Amino acid sequence: MLFVLVQRDADSVVLNTIMPIVREPLTWVPLYAFMLYYAFCAGKRIQNLSATADGRDKVPSRAWSFIILSVLAFAITDSLTAQVLKPLFERPRPCHDPVMQNYLHGLVDCGGLYSMPSNHAANHFALATFWYFSLRAFNGRKWPWLWLWAALVCYAQVYVGKHYPGDVLVGAIVGTLTGWGISRLFVYWEHRQAQRLSLRHRKTSYI
C-alpha cells in the first residue's frame, strides 16, 4: 500500500520536521503576498495605468479580477470538499482507523473524521491551476512550478498521516478542474474588459 510506504519506508527525521511546516497555510503567506504584488505590478505594466475619462489613473482591472477569482476558486473547492464530498464519501482519516495506528507518524493533530477528498489538495491545485492558466493569458508567463508546489503540499498531507494518497488525488482532480474553469472565467472577463476599453478609446478619438 502506497500510504504504508510513505509512512513507514519514507520516514525521515528531516522530513518529520519539514512536512508539518509544508502543510501549514501560514507557511505560504509570502507566496500569496508575492502573487498579490505580482498581479498589480504585471497589471500596471500591461495597462500602463490606463487613464480614466477624467484623466486620473486607475488600479489595473486585471489585478482585481485575478485576485477576486483566486479567492473564488479557493472558496469553491474548500466548500465543495468540506461540505459536499466528504459527507458523501464518508471515508475516515487514516488517523481515525485503528488498523493504521501502527504506521502513523503522529506528527499533527488528526482533525475531522472524514478525509476524502483532501481540502488542502483541492485548494492548492485550484490556485495553482487558476494562476498558471490566468497568468498565461495575463502576460504569457508559464509557471509549471505552481503544480509542483501544490503536489508538495499534497505529499505533506499523506506524510503526516492526514490523508490517503487517493484522498489527495481526488482533491487534486477537483481543484484542477475548478481552477481551470475559473481561469476560463478570467479570460472571458478580460476579453470583455478589453472590448470596453477599445470602445472607449474609439469614442475618445472621435471627440
Descriptive overview:
This protein is an all-alpha fold and 207 residues long. The chain has one domain. Helix content is 70%, strand content 0%. The longest helix is centred in the C-terminal third of the chain and has 42 residues. 33% of the residues are buried. About 5% of the residues have low confidence.
For the terminal residues, how far apart are their CA atoms?
Answer: 72 Å
What's the shape?
A: elongated
Strand count, sense and closure of the main sheet? none
What is the subunit arrangement here? single chain
Helix content: 55-70%
List keywords for this structure.
elongated, mainly alpha, 70% helix, 207 residues, 7 helices
How is this structure best summarized?
The protein has 7 helices and no strands. With 207 residues, it is mostly helical. The chain has one domain.
Indicate the topology.
Blueprint: H1 2-9, H2 13-22, H3 29-47, H4 61-89, H5 119-139, H6 145-159, H7 165-206
Helix pairs in contact: 2-6, 3-4, 4-5, 4-7, 5-6, 5-7, 6-7
